[in-house]
Design a protein that fits this description.
Layout (H helix, E strand, L loop, with lengths): L1 E3 L5 H12 L4 H4 L4 H5 L3 H10 L8 E7 L5 E10 L15 E9 L8 H14 L7 E7 L3 H10 L2 E7 L9 E7 L1
Parallel strand pairs: 4-5
Antiparallel strand pairs: 1-2, 2-3, 3-4, 5-7, 6-7
Helix pairs in contact: 1-4
Length: 180
């Protein structure tokens, strides 16, 4: 089952994020290290869960894939960006769009179609925004071939845009988009 997180589920949000940061390609896919995230106080995780929750969030939605036993096995987060709202996390916003970030599927659930289901949910939520958004975008590190293949297979196409989402000083992240 895929569903939005609820504001009180901060401990599960933290556990899944820390699991994602232990992934061998985490340094390419996430803006923080395991050590940095593990040191964050509970208040940070409470606020993060609340901000992306179905019951309290507004411009962010975190979705989780929940196994039959209740264990969270995957996640994807969507950020809404609108022109005129100042720079977004990846630069100036020139059109209404959403950004998909923090995509992760536990190793034991990979190859099951779960990442496609998470992306479908993220895209459907994006298209349901009012006022409407014209595109869904994401960034993938040029060395993260596994993620790049998933996004291409799903239908995301490269725009030629690049960003430095990790703050390395080099724009090594490739922009992909899915248009309405």
């Amino acid at each position: 089952m895929i569903r939005p997180v609820r504001s009180g589920e901060w401990e599960a949000v933290r556990e899944l994020r820390l699991a994602a940061l232990r992934d061998p390609v985490a340094a390419l896919a996430f803006v923080e290290s395991y050590e940095e995230a593990a040191a964050l106080p509970d208040a940070f995780w409470r606020e993060r869960a609340e901000g992306g929750s179905e019951d309290r969030g507004t411009w962010i939605r975190q979705f989780v894939a929940e196994a039959a036993d209740g264990r969270w096995v995957g996640t994807a987060t969507v950020l809404v960006e609108r022109p005129g709202g100042g720079p977004g996390p990846f630069g100036e916003v020139t059109e209404a769009q959403t950004d998909v970030v923090g995509v992760y599927v536990r190793p034991e659930a990979r190859g099951s179609g779960l990442v496609d289901a998470l992306l479908r949910t993220a895209v459907e939520w994006s298209w349901a925004q009012e006022p409407p958004v014209g595109r869904v975008r994401l960034f993938v590190n040029e060395e993260n071939g596994r993620a790049e293949a998933v996004y291409r297979r799903f239908g995301f196409v490269p725009t030629g845009g690049r960003a430095d989402t990790l703050g390395s000083g080099e724009p090594r992240d490739l922009e992909y988009e899915l248009r309405r």
